[in-house]
């Protein structure tokens, strides 16, 4: 049986103000998306503080496309 907290995480969607740590914790499948976009955020000490928007800006990644790729990984 899925716990209430887990149901809530599955229903949520990543948004630009979430930190990358929150994203990777809630949806481990998103790690591959981060790496595929050549973001070196996995294991980085800034990850708990860097939002999706911050990371996209810092790495020159299109935010809308990145969010779409995250959502596709979550849905898979």
TrEMBL record:
Domain DUF1858: 15-66
SUPFAM superfamilies: SP0561-like (SSF140683)
PANTHER family found in the cross-reference section: BSL7085 PROTEIN, DUF1858 DOMAIN-CONTAINING PROTEIN
Cited Gene3D superfamilies: SP0561-like
InterPro entries xrefs: CHP03980_redox-disulphide, DUF1858, ScdA-like_N_sf
Coiled-coil residue windows: none
Protein name: DUF1858 domain-containing protein
Species: Chelativorans intermedius
């Amino acid at each position: 049986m899925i716990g209430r907290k887990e149901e809530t995480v599955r229903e949520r969607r990543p948004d630009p103000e979430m930190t990358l740590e929150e994203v990777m914790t809630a949806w481990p499948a998103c790690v591959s998306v981060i790496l595929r976009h050549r973001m070196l955020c996995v294991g980085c000490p800034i990850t708990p503080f860097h939002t999706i928007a911050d990371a996209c800006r810092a790495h020159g990644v299109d935010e809308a496309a990145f969010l779409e790729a995250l959502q596709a990984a979550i849905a898979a």
